[in-house]
Write a structure and sequence with these properties.
The structure is a single chain. This protein has about 425 residues and is α+β, with helices and mostly antiparallel strands. The protein folds into 4 domains: about 60 residues, no CATH class; about 70 residues, no CATH class; about 120 residues, 2-Layer Sandwich (Nucleotidyltransferase, domain 5); about 80 residues, no CATH class. Helix content is about 40%, strand content about 15%. The chain is built from 19 helices and 13 strands. A 5-stranded mixed beta sheet has the order 8-7-6-9-10. A 3-stranded antiparallel beta sheet has the order 3-4-5. The chain has a 3-stranded antiparallel beta sheet with strand order 11-12-13. It is an enzyme of class 2 (transferase).
């Protein structure tokens, strides 16, 4: 076949597959052929079979470009080892030395190179969010200059560092137990596919995706269901024909697979049916134990609350100044390790830091994001911080905001019917 034809690679790939048909220990990609064996003796047998097959079809190999009988090998941009695979060091170094893009086209190129190794990056959607904002509404070869912010520059450097610390991913083994951990936050979904190996769960691949504006308005249930649906769809080639368990930290999803679908919304029904084609073994896992998937989907963590910043904001808060004169509250200053002082309410048995108006929205997001709490639990925790719902509305959070954040899927109600048969024995105790 002549050089330059667009279908030449596909034609040659079909040809090399036909040449090596039946040799399940061979992994060919165009003119690169990888032969995997468990021992030196087996490897010698495998190589003889491959060479005989190539000779039968009149193909020759370049000895100077060939590598034989090694435990580690560079293949298609990856370092392949007995334990798993990871990005090549020289490829990673090239990205580490990548200069900050000056225009949209250069940034698109950088993200394309980075996402070649996306399956190794735990929280790619989160860490690239600000960079992708620059690409919104841009054309393919947009030469517009980028106005870099401090946060965007930090995220650019973090993306490079994350690749330098990329996780070693295990090779899929059909004989080992398989599990899929999924989670969703307000803006992203995340998942990790793992297999149980050497008495621990080892990652096979990561997945994360930023939700669009419409999806971010979904209820907690719908976002969690969407995350599970997209994760199963993404890992379809791993999951087909396998028995596996799906873990989620959203308990209502477990019961959804055991209920009739006639009351579910059409979108929910489609997603539930699709997931059920692969597995109905859905188990609940506490949020604190679903660390990896939760990290992939969550932009911030509770530990990111900075009490020093709260202390600084307290000095500018007008409401605090007026509250100091109210006798029902017992406000006292408590020293922080940094030397600053934090005003706290000690009128109850629990010391509660005073949350200034500028921090109340952030605190709400942290509390609700702990494990997707309902409205009663969220308000109870808010009260433990001294935050009444009325105060939250006063700082810019309207009632409609709470309705969207705290709403859950509608409860399925069964029609009333008469009881026709009663076959149980009852003991009446008076």
């Amino acid at each position: 076949m002549s050089f330059g034809l667009k279908n030449a690679p596909a034609t040659f790939q079909r040809f090399i597959h036909e040449v090596l048909r039946g040799l399940d220990f061979v992994f060919p990609y165009l003119d690169d052929i990888l032969t995997a064996s468990k021992s030196n003796q087996e490897h010698e047998i495998h190589l003889n079979l491959v060479l005989e097959r190539l000779n039968t079809f009149g193909l020759r190999i370049n000895i100077s470009k060939s590598v034989f009988a090694v435990e580690e090998i560079k293949f298609l941009g990856y370092l392949i080892t007995p334990q798993g695979s990871r990005p090549l060091l020289d490829k990673v170094q090239a990205i580490m030395n990548y200069k900050r893009p000056e225009n949209i086209q250069d940034l698109r190129t950088f993200l394309g190179i980075l996402n070649f190794y996306r399956r190794y990056l735990k929280d790619a959607a989160k860490n690239q969010a600000l960079l992708h904002e620059y690409l919104k509404g841009s054309k393919k070869k947009d030469k517009r200059k980028i106005q870099w912010t401090d946060d965007a520059e930090k995220q650019f450097e973090k993306c490079k560092n994350d690749l330098a610390n990329a996780t070693l991913l295990s090779f899929p083994n059909s004989e080992l137990p398989l599990s899929l951990f999924t989670d969703a936050s307000d803006t992203e979904i995340g998942a990790v596919l793992q297999q149980y190996e050497n008495s621990t769960w080892q990652p096979i691949a990561f997945y994360s995706k930023k939700l669009n504006d419409t999806q971010q308005n979904y209820s907690t249930y719908d976002r969690e269901l969407l995350g599970m649906y997209l994760s199963v769809k993404h890992f379809k080639h791993y999951l087909e024909g396998r028995t596996f368990t799906i873990y989620t930290d959203h308990k209502p999803l477990i019961f959804a697979f055991h209920q009739k679908l006639d009351k579910a919304a059409p979108r929910q029904a489609r997603q539930l049916i699709y997931i059920s084609q692969f597995s109905t073994d859905i188990k609940y896992i506490k949020g604190e134990n679903n660390i990896v998937a939760d990290t992939l989907s969550r932009v911030t963590e509770v530990s990111s609350i900075d009490y020093d910043q709260i202390a600084d904001a307290q000095t500018q808060d007008e409401e605090l100044k007026s509250l100091k004169t109210i006798t029902s509250l017992n406000l006292k200053e408590y020293p922080l390790p940094s030397g600053k002082y934090l005003w706290c309410d000690t009128s109850t048995s629990k010391i509660r830091p005073y949350i200034p108006e500028s921090f109340r929205k952030q605190i709400f997001h942290h509390i609700h994001g702990l494990s997707h709490l309902g409205i009663k639990s969220t308000i109870k925790l808010m009260n433990s911080f001294g935050l009444a719902l009325k105060k939250m509305c006063n700082c810019g959070l309207e009632p409609a905001f709470f309705a969207k954040k705290l709403k859950s899927i509608a409860t399925l109600k069964q029609n009333w019917a008469s009881l026709k048969y009663l076959q149980e024995d009852f003991v009446l105790c008076i």
